[in-house]
Amino acid sequence: MSNLSPALRHRARMLAERTAGAAEPLGVTTGSAYELMLYKLSDDRRRLKSIQSVERKIEVKATMLATYAQWIDGVLAGGKGAQDDVVATLLVWHIDTGEYDRALVIAAYCMEHGFTLPDGYSRDIPTMMLDEFAAAYLQGKLGDNPQHAVAVLGAVEAMTVASDAPDQARAKLHKAIGLAMVAVLDQQDATDIAPALLEQAGVAMAQLQRARALSESVGVKKDMERLERRIKRAADSS
Into how many domains does the chain fold? Predict the structure, then answer.
């Protein structure tokens, strides 16, 4: 579908919108167009399963996403919340391939309507979001722009705050947010925190404290000690 003309892309999106709009809320998406997308997804998953390299799998997933773009856009525009395993699976793929902003848009729809991940996934969507977005930052995949990382991770926190999830998963997200906030402070001054930024430093500390309260093993003790020393120096200088 990525090579379709604008008219055919529009037609594909409208078909997805009508299909999603015809399904009852809390029901399951049906129809020949949806079955065709499920078949395509199954075929793509078989292709991915044959690839042993995780890095190569991600590269191939990235090339596949464009062929589902019109389906996703149509569901988001016209859907009433019926379970759609194609959209749920592609939420995970967008995170896997680093399409974090797009993933947040898809996640908002999935979580609003209580989607579940298809068979083969062991976690629910909130837990998967906490795990994968935190890991993306902590592994350096979301770290090029700390301010953007704070915004993305903050959106995940807001989106999942009311969801039941393992404390360890939530602790990792708080750790990631705290460290991203420290990285933003570092952009202002790599040596010390300016007194004017004490409030932001306090918020970062609160995130790290929350992470440790949820899980002692999350590994933020040293980060908290370093930040505490910087906060004290900034307070003394003010």
Answer: 1
